[in-house]
């Protein structure tokens, strides 16, 4: 990722945390209060806040309300997984308590909730902060407090490349890697394409758009129109009307769920414009498509890395069976066919493996474990997708597969593409 885009990602963090850091400059770092209580040897003196021989306390920050509230159900998938594991004896004999806070997709609120989780709830780790703006707003604070922030629910490429934040790691494929998948697909199938782009005017939207444009460099494909929107906008109908006038034959839809549905619906209503519609993975859930009407989203293309719970090919899959049974028992109000719930299950399963791999039952032990994943398999991920990290690589997943919407569900096509091997690493 180039330096200018990296600075863009960090601006939200600087703005949202300035007041917080001033207020806490003279305070004792509360995450350090319990240093010196780890057992023995190499673990002695490390932080054990939030973990005992019998319990692990984790916190998560999600938009349970506000313009991105569709993502809130991810927390139900996570909670169901941990309750399922607790029912079977926990992780190395420890039961997991998962505390969920709502930030409404507002960075200042995310800062407030991060402080609450660390200073009042005294969590072991802030597992899952959702959204690029909210994650950027809190990562300075959490890294200064030396509190693990593993597997954030955002694909911004900065999470895996910034050496100043070793306590933060990504999970899902970063937006630059995802953009490369779409660029490769167009270069292979529509080498003279004219592309119109709708994107969210923040670090999330700009990261994916920038990665897409970089991946197209030197090709015959041109971005002929771009329109942005703010998360506070009531709709994107005006932007879609403008993009339609470009007569582009491809529409790249870089949106969060609310606006993803609006863009898909607007595309269906513009009868004289029929572009190939590519929607980014974060708005590809059936929960986003269903309100539009499945008949109106036929042929839409996206990419994924985990199993679609609505796809019958996974009906007899052992992990999918466990997921459906656990949701029925521990989160009966959560739709098992909703991909966001499956996402939550998959990332919680990853956290399970990281916790189990800790050499020390400490915050430092977790930090090191998430930076040392080697071909880790998670049952909810697609065949061929494994997790790998290293000291200089905090992108656990960089393999994705294309899918096309047919009938009432997504259908995978092509082969999984490991973007690390295909394009090289994403760098800072």
From TrEMBL:
Lineage top rank: taxon: Bacteria
Signal peptide feature range: 1-27
Origin organism lineage: Bacteria, Bacillati, Actinomycetota, Actinomycetes, Kitasatosporales
Family: Belongs to the leucine-binding protein family.
Coiled-coil intervals, chain numbering: none
Listed Pfam families: Peripla_BP_6
Keywords linked to the UniProt accession: Signal
Protein name in UniProt: ABC transporter substrate-binding protein
SUPFAM superfamilies: Periplasmic binding protein-like I (SSF53822)
Organism of origin: Streptomyces luteolifulvus
Segments forming domain Leucine-binding protein: 55-406
